[in-house]
TrEMBL record:
It comes from the Bacteria. Keywords: DNA-binding, Transcription, Transcription regulation. Transmembrane segments: none annotated. This is Crp/Fnr family transcriptional regulator. Residues 17-137 form the Cyclic nucleotide-binding domain. It comes from Pseudoduganella armeniaca. InterPro entries: cNMP-bd_dom (IPR000595), cNMP-bd_dom_sf (IPR018490), Env_Response_Regulators (IPR050397), HTH_CRP (IPR012318), RmlC-like_jellyroll (IPR014710), WH-like_DNA-bd_sf (IPR036388), WH_DNA-bd_sf (IPR036390).
Amino acid sequence: METRQPSLKEALRSAIWARTLTPEQMARVEATTFEVFVPKGGFVCRKGEVVDNWVGIIAGMVKMNNFSPSGKSVTFTGVPPGGWFGEGSLLKDEHRKYDAMALRDSRIARMPAETFHWLLESSLPFTRFLLMQLNERLGQFIGMVENERLLDPDTRVARCLASLFNSHLYPGIERLVQISQEEVGLLSGASRGRANQALQVLERQGLLRVDYGGIRILDLEGLRRFQAG
């Protein structure tokens, strides 16, 4: 049975940053934020474009990545439902530095830059949230560089899955992660076949179970500590 997806209003009201907004602030957020549908493989946003929205994931999965002139792709991170991104470019008023693509059919929330900056000026808790968001994102990217340069594919897959469980960046994600083996490969920089091998290794270690419709995490701390021998 399919899980019921939240409405745009429900998704906004359940966001961490929305919990401390005043009724006036929440009303403006709800009045101005809109939803778009992006099919699997479609662009949520493009590198080089003017950044005029803060972007949230209502349903689906999005990856942030870039392509080299030769066509090689590097993936920075995956963003599951409940995650928001793009605050850095909005704060610096710069063009977007990366692409964001839908790994599956996705519902996307877009908060206009005007509303974003109004919240920044009128809500101290929202400003604190953004400081934490930027700090967590920095830590995530530092870990990603380390994983890419130092770790083997099995360990990269383990850390990739563990990174989705960040209570600040991706609140509300459940232990059954609705993610395919192909998507795991795309996010961890491995082929689908190699990602499948890594998942089998992690499953034998008792850290996860590959279920119908996703991957069930059995030992999150074990995934974070996992290091292939």
